[in-house]
Amino acid sequence: MNADINEMPMSTPPARRLRWWMVLAFAGVLVLLTLVALQMRHNGPLAAAQVGAGEAAPTFTLQTFDGQTVNLASLHGKVVLVNFWASWCIPCSQEAPDLENAWRQYNDKNVVFVGVDYVDTDTEARKYLQQYDITYLNGADLGTRISQAYRIRGVPETYVVDKSGTLRASFIGPTTLDQIRATVDPLLSN
Amino acid sequence: MSLVALATQAASAQGGTPPAPRVVTDDDVNRVAHQLYCPVCENIPLDVCPTQACIQWRATIHDKLAAGWTDQQILDYFSAQYGERVLARPTTHGINVLVWVIPPLLLLAGAVVLWRVLRQMRPPAAATQASKAGPASPQGPASGSDEYSDRLEQELRKRI
Fold first, then answer.
1. A168, A175, A176, B47: which is deepest, by most CB within 10 A?
2. CATH for A108
């Protein structure tokens, strides 16, 4: 009997065929992942974590509150201090007097200060500038393009760019007059 | 529409009479704010966010509504000013299209897979009836397996 059973033809499992919908689904997932990766590379975690010292400072164009247009690329040959701030930000108001004080010391020394107002309302931003008597260039970060280019994590943040357009220092959180002088003075003497 | 209303509209269109200031309630502000997200906090709608930034944004919405702006005009303004990421409802261009296209496609794909799986599943009762009904065709996909089981059962019955 055992021999009879052994002689019975054994059924074989059907071969797994690659079906068109499997290929389509796989291709779809692949396309989706590529798109997401490209987006993340452009503007997300795959991009450089933060703009660091020694790297070329991202260029930008800023429309100031008084109607001027500032282009970082056109400021080559000058030391540029870029400060990200907002009127709703308490630490920003702590550093505001020091920044203005520093600006008044440097404004005739080949140094440019640029304030970038981050996700703020026009009315409150102007009130803030008036309250702290801020006289250097300031404008709104339209579409948050500049803050995205610098990959800021919050406000205030300050970046110092040397005469060749290279980023030399960054300060996360409120900065002080002493910090600014210690960073800008050596760049001016170079 | 009454003649008076038409006349008023015509005067406004010609710039003759500025529109009267609109009374804006908190509900009006929140209706627009609910369609925006806080720029500072993660995933918090503007209408419920307690941060100073959001208080200022709601004040801006109030001012714009009072000035006669429509909800859409205000949303467009915020999008242009602060980027599309502040919108609660993603736009339908660029990579945002994926947000609208992928979920229905996945649902559809899931439904197709489910339908195929259900179609391939044969209830055990139906399979037994089919085997009892007569000899299975040698060309049938499961014919070898059924024959083998039937034979096995017959042999077992003989021994019991």
1. A175
2. 3.40.30.10
